[in-house]
User: Fold this.
Amino acid sequence: MAAYEPFELSSEPLDVGELAASMANSGAGALVTFEGRVRNTNDNRSVVALEYEAHPALCRSEGAAVVRESLDGVIAARCVHRVGRLRVGEVAVWVGVTAAHRDEAFRACRAVIDGVKRRVPIWKKEHYADGSTEWLRGCEPEGHAHHESR
Amino acid sequence: MAEQKTVHLEYFAAFREMAGKGSETVRSQASTATELYEEVAALHGFAFDRSTLRVALNNVIEPWSSPIRDGDLVTFLAPFAGG
Assistant:
């Protein structure tokens, strides 16, 4: 058993080196990782910070489902998402996937980050340079099938 | 006459700010999640189009047509914006 949950929330900065090291597996010919980072603009507005808020219970169940459904052909997959206030440049979400070969690892990594954005209840408030703030409009439900696997 | 139920509401993010609180308990005659949302939205002035929202009953995402039962924990979920 892995020493981590498939999907976790963290209120502390992510140590991406430590996260990558947690995926060590002698059968893995590939480790693909994705870092989502806070960028300094959105819709032509200057962003100074982001605030993430999550529904912890639903994140655990939906996040685990997203990771589990991406496991086809891979050895392991893991995702950690930040909550709280983040500055520009900080890592907001990290995904790591190990597989015997790169194709499966790239595919699963993409599936995890896309699924997390679409299905995991996390919200993002942008803080702008002019002092204003706004909760972002994110992913809306896709018909009735938003929580079914693809 | 519809049955009075006690419903526990939990608010996150934009909903928490609009409601001015993280949770509350209400009495309601709503029979479905849709009806409950209409009631609570009117109470707090929630400005969302319901078709963009999801609802969780007892921490499971369910259809809006789901029945509301006495003692349910209900969470209205704004469009997700993780990543």
